[in-house]
Amino acid sequence: MSEKLGFAMGNHNEEELTDIAFHLQQMIFVVWWVYAWATVHVVISDLGHRPLVWDWRFIDYDDIAFPCNFLWGVASAAHQVSVYYVCI
């Protein structure tokens, strides 16, 4: 039997291995249901959400101002600036 399972049985008898397999199946089932519930919950909660869209035709550009103490910042990521060369 241990050769079929692919590992040495050690101190486990066949009944204990069957019990371990049953509990493993139960854990996989629970994890699957939690994943399914979370996926459905995200999809349903996102149905009523509309993204923020600004209609720039009606925005007065003269009314836009930054405070005097506003600090500008810049950020970048490695994949935006690095180059990958493939040598053939």
Protein model, in words:
With about 90 residues, the protein is mostly helical. The chain has one domain (about 1-80). It has helices spanning about 1-5, 15-45, 80. The two termini are about 50 Å apart. The relative contact order is 0.04. The mean pLDDT is about 80.
Tag the structure with descriptive keywords:
88 residues, mainly alpha, elongated
Compact description:
The chain is mostly helical and 88 residues long. It has one domain.
Helix content: 40-55%
Strand content: under 5%
Largest sheet: none
The whole-number mean of residue pLDDT values reads: 78
Question: Which segments are poorly predicted (pLDDT under 50) over 5 or more consecutive residues?
Answer: none
The best one-word shape is elongated
The number of helical runs is: 3
Order of helices and strands: HHH
Number of domains: 1
Q: How many β strands by DSSP? A: 0
Which quaternary structure do these chains form?
single chain
The CA-CA distance between the termini, in Å, is: 51 Å
Please identify the structural class as seen in this structure: mainly alpha
Radius of gyration: 29 Å
Give a topology summary.
Layout: H1 2-5, H2 14-47, H3 78-81
